[in-house]
């Protein structure tokens, strides 16, 4: 298929060379234009894995529209596609105008050339805070429409009107209530706002994990589907609502201090499970 098989043969032939001489795994997975055949399987972990038998999320569905089609990252494990459709339908029934769905995964998952270190096993989805407009977006609009942040630039302050107008608290609570969801990454400012506003049952807040970025979108991560024995789950979040000292740390100087550490080296095929290395050579 295209140049993919030739590239894999070249890498195998150079197996004795140092890993740094091998092309990054993202080059192989980025070259895969279609999912592999056979049953769906999430292989490895979210940041060190791949995806067999992916399905593609429709560009539009009841309650959602998919964004950035040119990125070709609308593929996922069937469990994630079902979740997106389920969440969109539930929110639509509650009166939400619709979700704008960002990146899922590449046709065979795996590392991407830019933008993410996760989204590799087909179980991660980015969903914009900005609700969908009342009309069906044209392709050009999907490529150029900007996501809107919930945090004021260069501050740790909430854009309170947007937070309210986007119905953020209800969207995130509904998302977290789905039993397939393992965690949701949000900006620390968004987490703090929810901790301050939530009343009644609060355990759902524990699924919301503060992380750098995520001011324009939230990142949903599903647990490994039942029966996907090659899938590696992340450890579950700690018990409780997470509105404690671990959240307070994000509002100190330490998380935002410049770092002299070198960026991590790109993953090579040898860094991935053996099934992933075989997957990019599959027809």
Word description of this protein:
By secondary structure, this protein is α+β, with helices and mostly antiparallel strands. It has one domain (32-251): Muramoyl-pentapeptide Carboxypeptidase, domain 2 (2-Layer Sandwich), CATH 3.30.1380.10. Helices cover 26% and strands 15% of the residues. It has a 4-stranded mixed β-sheet with strand order 8-11-9-10. It has a 3-stranded mixed β-sheet with strand order 4-5-7, covered by helices on one side. The protein has a two-stranded antiparallel sheet with strand order 1-2. Strand 1 and strand 2 (48-52) form a beta hairpin. The radius of gyration is 19 Å and the shape is globular.
The averaged pLDDT comes out at 91
Rounded to an integer in angstroms, the radius of gyration calculated over CA atoms is 19 Å
What general form does the structure show?
globular
Query: So, CATH architecture?
Result: 2-Layer Sandwich
List key phrases describing it.
Muramoyl-pentapeptide Carboxypeptidase, domain 2, four-stranded mixed sheet, 9 helices, globular, disordered N terminus
Entry summary:
26% of the residues lie in helices and 15% in strands. With 283 residues, the protein is of the alpha+beta class. A 4-stranded mixed beta sheet has the order 8-11-9-10. A 3-stranded mixed beta sheet has the order 4-5-7, with helices on one face.
């Amino acid at each position: 298929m295209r140049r993919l098989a030739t590239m894999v043969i070249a890498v195998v032939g150079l197996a004795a060379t140092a890993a740094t001489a091998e092309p990054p795994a993202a080059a192989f997975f980025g070259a895969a234009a279609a999912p592999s055949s056979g049953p769906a399987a999430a292989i490895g972990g979210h940041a060190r894995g791949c995806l067999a038998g992916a399905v593609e999320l429709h560009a539009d569905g009841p309650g959602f529209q998919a964004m950035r089609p040119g990125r070709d990252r609308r593929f996922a494990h069937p469990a994630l596609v079902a979740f997106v459709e389920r969440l969109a339908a539930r929110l639509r029934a509650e009166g939400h105008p619709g979700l704008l769905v960002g990146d899922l995964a590449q046709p065979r998952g795996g590392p991407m050339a830019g933008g993410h270190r996760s989204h590799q096993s087909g179980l991660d989805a980015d969903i914009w805070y900005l609700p969908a407009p009342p009309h069906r977006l044209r392709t050009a609009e999907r490529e150029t429409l900007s996501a809107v942040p919930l945090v004021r630039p260069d501050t740790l302050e909430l854009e309170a009107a947007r937070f309210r107008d986007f119905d953020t608290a209800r969207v995130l609570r509904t998302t977290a209530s789905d039993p397939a969801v393992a965690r949701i990454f949000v900006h620390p400012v968004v987490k703090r706002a929810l901790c301050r506003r939530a009343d009644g049952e609060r355990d759902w807040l524990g699924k919301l994990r503060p992380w750098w970025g995520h001011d324009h979108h939230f990142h949903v991560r599903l647990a490994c589907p039942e029966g996907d024995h090659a899938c590696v789950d992340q450890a579950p979040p700690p018990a409780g609502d997470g509105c404690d000292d671990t959240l307070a740390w994000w509002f100190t100087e330490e998380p935002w201090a410049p770092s002299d550490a070198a960026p991590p080296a790109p993953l090579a095929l040898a860094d991935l499970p053996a099934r992933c290395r075989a997957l990019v050579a599959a027809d």
